[in-house]
Fold this protein.
Amino acid sequence: MNHRAAHPGDLRGRASALAAFDRSDDRRGQAWLTSEYCPDPEPVRDRGPILLTHMRFDHDRLGLDLWVRDRGGTRSLSGLVAGDTAGTRVQVRCPDRAYDRRVALDGSFGVAELAPGPVSLVVRCRDDASVVTDWFTV
Amino acid sequence: MPDQPGEGNHGTNESQKTILSTTVEGRTPPGLPVPARTDEDDATLIARAREGDAHAWEIIVDRHLPMVNAIATSYRLGSPDREDAVQTVWLALNQHLPHLHSPHHLRPWLRRVTHSTCVRQRHHGLRLRPVDPQALAERPPGEDASGPEHDPEALYLRKEVHEALHRAVGGLTDPADRRAARYYLGQAPAHESTPVERRRLKRRLHRLLREHR
């Protein structure tokens, strides 16, 4: 028996939880997180961005490597799409905005100065097929 | 996305077989979100939500949000990190709704995802330590916040020495010599830390040092 009466408990975040409801991704392919690597902090000679994590998402023949870096409190994403990348676009989605990027011929793309928070990516191939990644926090 | 108390009181009415929950006195405090209540089980609600029923989603949120919040609070994350983690959980549920194999096990699924999201959030938080800008401004040039031992130059040199030592140890042909060298470096495996083994390694080490003197 898994139904239980709702109770007026801690409902912080209710508005954003309700806003998360969106069925537009249901027909898209799902790229699953297949590996994640959080390197130990390394000393750096300059004050460059710190690599927070490297993630790999896979869906069929599409592979997506993603590096998340921190620079002064904001995040930057750089990615590499493996496979046929001609005409491919990537949309980096936050709950309140989205950034469209064209994937370069070598499969690379990047977004800088992202606010920390949940992020998901949509990879749109030339044949209109699109793949979404899991949501993750940056 | 910041939480907005008072919002989100969507679509609850009597005709939809749901009733508003009330406080003990039978009234809802003004300005607080009103959780929707139903006797439908999670599997039924998920089936409805998969078909685009936003009201079913609202009931799911109201039923399980307190648990998600309780888990997130237990990780003692800062307020923005906690909000991000909770929001990520619901975004993940929305995305995985069509793929859930056991919708009647929604609560354990949410519990597991909340824990993993919070662990990840905490891990990121540990790597990024806030520094008081005033303290940075007052620090003498060239001095690292954690002291000279954390100076990038010193850390690089230490890393290079460590790698050079390991290369040298790896070049020793006799396995017993390699074990003795690892013991000298303080990196002997646990099973080689018995007193007898330690004495044997020390003798081996002394012999090695005599030979290479």
User: Anything to note?
Assistant: Residues 1-28 of chain B have pLDDT under 50 and may be disordered. Strands of chain B lie at 19-20, 36-37. Chain B touches chain A through 69 residues (CB under 8 Å). The radius of gyration of chain B is 30 Å.
